[in-house]
Amino acid sequence: MIGLILPNSNSQNFYLTLKKMYFVDQLTIVLVILFLAISIIQFNLLSVYGFEDIKISTGSSFIDSNGKLNIIGVITNYGITSEHITVGLNIHSKIDDSITTLRDTTYSNIIYPGKESPFKFKIGSDYNVVGQPYIIKNNKVNDPFYNTVVQNYSNFPVGQNKELLGTIKNTGHVVLHNIIVFASVHNKNGTQIDSIKSDNIPTLKSGEVKSFSARPDLSIAKDANYFSCAGFDLNGPINTLDVGNGKFLTYGLESIAKISNFNYNKSTDSISFFADHYNPAGGIVTFKIQQLNNNHGIKVYLDNLEIKNEKIMTNGKTIITNIFVPPNEHLIKIAGILNYPN
User: Residue 164: which of 196, 207, 142, 125 has the closest Cα?
Assistant: First the structure.
């Protein structure tokens, strides 16, 4: 006699448990494969796009006073070109299992050669972080570094809130716009525990001094021991020069160089500055001003010697000159700014 065995409740529960275990195993495999794929993509990005001279380091993550996960780190530029860096971070949604890439720039819009800048991502409770922060892309920029800002501050936290306090002074003749001061916060073991920045300073005129402050998140403030890589970012273009008597000159300056002592001399009707190109072999400094009339011309001097064969272009509206700067720091003088060459 052949009988039919019907499943009881225990066997049904066992069967459902097996199905759940199978589903969890499959989901785990998918997530592992996805994580490996993302890691490979990140590695390939580093190889393909040539970030050999751009290094990223991550600090200690923490939950801030608003309950958000903070992922922090620093980008360092070891190269000879100025860079605008976009940092990426992959997150996994707990709600729909989707993977999203967050994108953000460093606190300094431009990271100059030999400089570094912190970054920070804030993640809500509905997401998990997948992997580590990585560089998505870098754009080489041709904006010079103006060595005309003096920061005065202590590397050690001040007060109950463990603040970074100090002043910033414009020692040059160029009007500066939209300045923020940033820094990395470290504990007594040297680990980075936060990335901080000050409120925006809208304008800093020649010779002007203004105060700034930046504080770590309250959740980690008690562990703040010192600050590092304190720097500043200028979000507005530097293209206005104070020529005295309440008058300002608009100009253009492009170069991967450090610019110092940039000023206008009324007696010689000239702009002069020191240029130190970041390329060890030297490089080009491009200077532009408005052409006042068809007879308006300029003369270019390098270390007080006139450059006879320097290429100077005019189009009726703008005067443009490309000046080759040899290795190390050199004095550049451009005469004939508002009138005719001396």
Answer: 196
Per-residue confidence (pLDDT) for residue 266, from 0 to 100: 87
CATH number of the 145-234 domain: 2.60.40
For domain 32-141, the CATH class is mainly beta
**Residues 6+ away with beta carbon under 8 Å from 74:** 56, 57, 59, 116, 117, 118, 119, 184, 192, 195, 229
User: What count of other Cβ atoms lies within 10 Å of the Cβ of residue 163?
Assistant: 19
CATH number for the region 240-335 comes to 2.60.120
* Residue 82 token pair: 């100025």
**pLDDT tens for each residue of 244-267:** 777 778 899 999 999 999 888 889
pLDDT of residue 39: 46
Does residue 214 contact residue 197 with C-beta atoms inside 8 Å? Answer: yes
More confident residue, 287 or 18: 287
Q: Is the pLDDT of residue 17 over 80?
A: no
